Amino acid sequence: MSRVLIVYFSRTGATRRVAAALATTLHADVEEIIDRSDRSGTLGILRCVLDSVMRRSASVEPMRHDLSAYQMVVIGSPVWAGRVSAPVRAWLATHRRRLPRVALFCTLAGRSSESALKELCELAAKQPVARCAISQRNAPQGEESRALNLFAQRIERTLAHIEEIEWAA
Ligand SMILES: Cc1cc2nc3c(=O)[nH]c(=O)nc-3n(C[C@H](O)[C@H](O)[C@H](O)COP(=O)(O)O)c2cc1C
């Protein structure tokens, strides 16, 4: 059984592609956050922006995996108006108290990810073992970006360290 769970929300597929690439590298299980709102079309995008600007939560489906079974949870969100997407905000509000170690990533169209990554850390209420931002252009079908490789390597090193401690105990 995998020791890593990747939890993500994706509206248009970029974050899903990054989550899938990470899942392959880390042999991780994957939990997609399912949003109950209609976010399609212009009105849908407007709803995303308003939710983000007003830091509103969203209504999401219950999760399928058991968080207590994992040593690491990797959480991914698209950046909306410089912030965390509403479905990921909702998921974290419900589950953050039960999180083990976390690693955080976001996908975005531009370059400025700092505010969204900072908000992700605050919402998770944990210092992440790794964090990274992947530009939508690099959210690859196949080819992984350098940042993503480094991110995965940090997670693997942390897992190896946990295993060493467990063997020593
Ligand atoms: C409502 C909305 C707001 C966005 N705001 C930003 C932003 O502030 N900065 C940015 O770089 N990209 C922004 N984007 C682009 C997304 O972050 C980017 O396309 C992301 O990779 C989409 O992920 P997804 O395909 O998994 O939904 C925004 C997209 C949407 C729909």
From TrEMBL:
Top-rank lineage group of the source organism: Bacteria
Sample GO molecular function, one term: electron transfer activity
Cofactor: FMN
Protein name from the UniProt record: Flavodoxin
Source organism of the structure: Caballeronia choica
